[in-house]
Amino acid sequence: MRNIERRSFLQTLGTGVLGTAVLPAAAKNAIPGGGVFLSPSGSPDEQFWGLVKAQFPIAEGKIMVNAANLCPAPYVVGDEIIRHARALDTDVSFQHRARFETIRKETLQALANFLGVSADEMGITRNTSEANNMVIQGLDFQPGDEVVIWDQNHPSNNMAWKQKAKRFGLIIKEVRTPGAAASPEELLQPFEAAIGTKTRVIAFSHISNVSGQVIPAAALCELARSRGVLTLIDGAQSFGMLNLNLQALGCDFYTSSSHKWLMGPKETGILYVRQAHLERLWPTTMGAGWKEGDLSVDGRICTLGQRNDALAAAMTSALRFHDAIGRQNIEERVFELAVRLKTALLERVPGLELVSPEADEATAGIVIVRHTTQDNNKLYEQLYHQYGIACAPTGGLRFSPTIYNTPAEMDNIAESLRQLVS
Ligand SMILES: Cc1ncc(COP(=O)(O)O)c(C=O)c1O
Questions:
Q1: Topology, domain 326-422
Q2: Res 43: pLDDT
């Protein structure tokens, strides 16, 4: 892409011209020389997505399809990290660094706006693992209290609960859900069956990283609430992919990382705690600046000595990037790419079985397949070394495309795998 076009796109990010409400009309003006940015219908077309792709410094010839693990950040986010880091290094006095306290408050407000909650309910962590542990280790329980977890959770959730249980005498009930659930009710039923009078928390991934299964999170939170049970949603696979509102989701705790689907700075994450529960959550790390009686999540739970302020400061640019493209557009594009990839793989590559959900409506951004007779680890390595396709070996071959991918890349992946197994 010509530099001038990239600059123009970036300018719109900076000024907010591409707010979702004004996207179609303003976007047409955004490209010098009258280039068409959106199709006449106002929906993003391939030219639009090409422009989006050009915002990322992805190496020529490489196809990154591992958003569930780690995403590249767009230039605009990388530039912001560097800008803030440089500003810090010009003057590391306490006086000058005070600006980062203001920026952190603005970032918390931007995160809160993005997720439909209040700034005091948001904290900035290093990643989802840390945020999960803050909740798990920070809640008080009585021996014999029960916690319901999902067998498809990430280890930072399940292992942490199991350690806590060993130490404090909790009982962990690990729920299994059907591999090919035909309805949301089939997914909810095992959780409902596990809830008893001693259940205190249900902890589940919004979307499983090991199966790609999407949990009907709002319904599960409602069910838990009706039984007086708290909910911890691990949102590592939903923040930045789904167009989320945490109020609507109705959870009590939500955690995520910014280096996955949000495409934000690496080693930053979020912790949401519903206001009503903040006082019952103990801080597990306390750094300088911690104050008794601070009733914000960031102040009470997320102090940790000296941090890399430039990273947290650049989170806002990732949020703006999403808003400029349109969060609904992003969600729909990810689903479209995943369904295209799933279809192409199953149609064109002999010997594959689907590990992630079969129904298109249950497929979020994660497509997992497994070759029934060949060595999947070898295929994973060959895909990268021979075709530049970066996926994950989770559950077989896990592909997680996002907005810097194209439909042509989805077809390319299927064709490359077909050649490898033939
Ligand atoms: C569901 C889930 N939770 C937690 C994590 C851990 O994320 P991080 O390493 O950013 O803490 C992952 C990582 O893939 C994940 O998929």
A1: Aspartate Aminotransferase, domain 1 (3.90.1150)
A2: 81
CATH of domain 83-321: 3.40.640.10
Distance CA 106, CA 101 (A): 9
Residue ranges around ligand 1 (CB below 6 Å): 68-69, 127-129, 154, 156, 205, 209, 234, 236-237, 257
Nearest CA to ligand 1 atom 16: 209
Q: Which segments of the chain belong to CATH 3.40.640.10? A: 83-321
Q: What single DSSP character describes residue 398?
A: E
> Is this model's pTM higher than 0.85 or not?
yes
**Token digits of residue 112:** 């809160």
Q: Which atom of ligand 1 is nearest to the CA of 206?
A: 1
**Complete edge-to-edge strand list for the sheet that includes strand 230-234:** 122-125, 269-273, 253-257, 230-234, 199-205, 146-150, 171-175
Residue 92 has pLDDT above 50, yes or no: yes
Q: Is the pLDDT at 195 greater than 70, yes or no?
A: yes
Amino acid letter, residue 50: G
Of 129, 159, 215, 366, which is best to mutate to test ligand 1, by the most ligand atoms within 8 angstroms of its C-beta? Answer: 129
DSSP 215: P
Q: Which residue puts its alpha carbon closest to atom 12 of ligand 1? A: 236
**Whole-number Å distance between alpha carbons of 282 and 135:** 8
